[in-house]
Amino acid sequence: MFHRFYTLDKKPTVWNIAFLTVAMLIGMAVILTRPTISVPWFLAVYVVFHLAALGMLIRAFFRQLRYDPYSYNTIYYAGFTILMLVYLLQVVFLVSRSYFWTYEPEVQITNLIGLLISSAKAFMIFTAPFVLLFSLALCISNIALIRHEGRRFVNILGIILSVLMVGGIVFLWKADYYVSGSHFYVMVRDMLTNLFASVYLYFECMVIGTIIAMIIVTTYKPDKNKDHILILGCGLKKDGTPTPLLKGRADRALKFYREQIDESGRAPVLVPSGGQGPDEVCAESESMARYLMEQGVPEEHILQEDRSVSTYENMRNSRDLLRERGGEGNVAFSTTNYHVFRSGLMARRVGMNAVGMGSRTKWYFWPNAAVREFVGLLTDHRVKQALVLCGMIVFYVVTVFLYYHFL
User: Fold this and answer.
1) pTM, rounded to two decimals
2) How many helices (H) and strands (E) does the chain have?
3) 305, β-bridge pairs
4) Edge-to-edge strand order for the sheet containing 331-336?
5) Residue 350 CA to chain centroid, in angstroms?
6) What is the pLDDT of residues 346-375, one digit of tens each?
7) What SS3 state is found at 236?
8) H/E run at residue 213
9) Would you say 219 and 355 are in contact if contact means Cβ atoms under 8 Å apart?
10) Rounded to 10 degrees, what is the CA torsion of 138, 142, 143, 147?
11) CA 302 → CA 2, 226, 232, 251, 308, distances in Å?
């Protein structure tokens, strides 16, 4: 379905959208000098801009998969593609309804600006039923997780996200239900509610973008030409044997190992990676190595990395170990399905082009773990989040001010 990963040398960029946006803003500034505007002309300009931006984002998304799928840009391109599509369909529908149902060839420019700034609120209302269903499913999976895994903070992240998502819709409905007061008070109130809705919509699209990115890298099938397969550690039982989660990662790597031998006759080196925790009787790499040999893997096909205590160290220490032996070559890594995307991001961070494969986990564990990965990705890219949010604040402050200035 998708192009092979790491086949493009040049990183895709979307600076052309910035130039396109500046051109549209200049056009809008000219439009603001007129009290009314022809609806077909406005629709033509608006549709051309959004279609062009949408095409640029889709192209950048697929080129990003070829350049480096394990990147926060993958989430951004997927999320903003959805965001752009929503704005396009929504405003075209609203303006078309105004024109074709009322047969008004011209409309007030303030009405058009009002449609633009309220589109985020309209989208929140439109998606409310889907958000409620998603939140309910997330809560059900979290309740099952708590019953099986205990009451820990990390096990209620899905419930917290569900409360925030539903609470955001309720808050907007209450805050935007009826507003009265001075012109300045109404303007500030409208500015805050529209800004809240846009930020909510942004994070909603980022959640969707994260899910899309995770599904792509999890379902991707690496080529059977690997020199090394890393197996990322995740804890042991008290007796030093692999936990079901760790066993799943080892089994996934073992399956690929056997498939590659059958198809090409070439045996990759398995690299179990993980040090010894304070409550563990041995290093995770040692436990995995024993398990692999019990499954028939020759000892000479196993290379242990026994010092890492985090995913980042898994990748960094394994990279150093492989380079000491002559280089990484073609590398794959095995981890749990929800952890593939972030692990690949860590591999790229240490300069290693590795593709991931994911082992399955229980149905009630995956949603909460995916939320945890999403939160981790957001906190890892705080600067990008701040820049985007600052841009949205500036846009809505200026747009709402112009709307009330011409009102």
Assistant:
1) 0.84
2) 13, 6
3) 273
4) 269-273, 228-232, 331-336, 354-359
5) 20
6) 999 999 999 999 998 887 777 777 777 777
7) strand
8) helix 183-219
9) no
10) 160
11) 32, 14, 14, 14, 17
